[in-house]
Design brief:
With 470 residues, the chain is an alpha/beta fold. The chain has 3 domains: 36-183, Rossmann fold (3-Layer(aba) Sandwich); 192-354, Rossmann fold (3-Layer(aba) Sandwich), CATH 3.40.50; 375-402. 47% of the residues lie in helices and 14% in strands. The chain has 17 helices and 12 strands. The structure holds glutamic acid. Glutamic acid is lined by residues 69-71, 145, 147, 177, 330, 355, 358-359, 362.
Amino acid sequence: MSRGTFFQSVSKYFDRAASHTKLKPGMLKQVKACNSIYRMRFPVREDNGEIKVVEAFRAEHSHHRLPTKGGIRFSKHVSLDETIALAALMTYKCAIVGVPFGGAKGGVRIDPLRISSGFRERVIRRYTAELLRKNFIGPDIDVPAPDYGTGEREMGLIADTYKNLRMNEPYPYACVTGKPLSMQGIPGRTQATGLGVFYGIRVCMEQAEDMRALGLKPGVAGKRVIVQGLGNVGYHAAHFLQTQGEGVITGIIEREGALYAEDGLDVGSVFKHRRETGSLEGYAGAAFSADSRAALEWDCDVLIPAALENQITAENAARIKARIIAEAANGPVDHEAETILQQRGVFMIPDIYLNAGGVTVSYFEWLKNKAGVSFDRLLSRHEELAKIQLVETIESLTGKSIPKEVRMQLLHRSNEEDMVIAALDQTMMVAYSQIHDRWRRRALPDLRTAALLLGIERVAESYSHHGIFP
Ligand code: GLU
């Protein structure tokens, strides 16, 4: 696949959505343009003492709201084009779920599977210092997060590096999200994207009319699901679909091959098997195939690409058998493939909505860091007092005392994680109904156009207060 394709694909999606608005061309150009790009090359010492020159990027797609926000990717496929495309998707994603940030993305061109822990640390610390040098990081400037190939350890290292270089910053930990809990992270952030994917699929599949058009009964329960990618997003999406949604995970695809079991795979034990043996192969009770790409074409109700972009292209789109494609990854279906899939009546839940759970919970983490207080501290006691009052009122009105166990349940003190999860659930529900409503009311071609349009119009609305647009 030639470079340039991913951003071109995002641009085509943009142009199609833009053709449905009355916004002026100048405004649309500004919403579409990538505002700032920083390309860097820096030396990092390898474990054997040699120097590797690492290439990295940060793209801030839209400054209509600050800070800009988006993950940092470690991958050997990182390119400037990919970073810009991903930053643009972040802009629309944040606007769609009402998170008041501009979009950004970072990429470091290294293979995360072939680097030592020490090298990883030196790279991420140097990358942070480079960002800081050009004012591309800070609680009110640009706030990174995890993405493919990075996780909470790297985010902790970013926070530590930033804090030590910016001694006067009052709330330095707000410079990055997805940090470990011990460094002012927020409970629920690790599973947030995957859980959001589950909530998004669930609300989509509750729409009886849409499901009927696909020949499916409403609801996730009993549906056959195939997941591509057992990383943080894919694993959690599959886990919650199975445990909370009673979906049947019939297939799991990874780079070395794929597993299939008609009666369903246990996501937790497949994950454990792969962690212990390094491969899906040899997992008991399921058929293994070494052809990962062909596995995308296996029959199922819902296919969840949760790995990288451009997995479904004009090359394989006509052979996909899933009724619904739930885009947990960013950009897994390219523009050409989408046209083919639509002609075949496949329903797509777009990435810019479906994987927004990560940045939603990042927003809560950032708020907590900026405020310098945890939500636990603010809310629990208040809620507890209200519940005690309610229980006492019931008892005095009925003249009966509530049994101890029921009383304990009623008085359960919700913690920060309960709050985060409830807010995530609510966010995914509200955004879906706004997108769905637009789709139907404005007779738009599909859900992606409706989602993108919502994002574009919200960004434009925010720019319209900047004074320059008449
Ligand atoms: N990397 C994630 C994404 O693509 C999360 C971004 C964030 O939390 O800022 O949405």
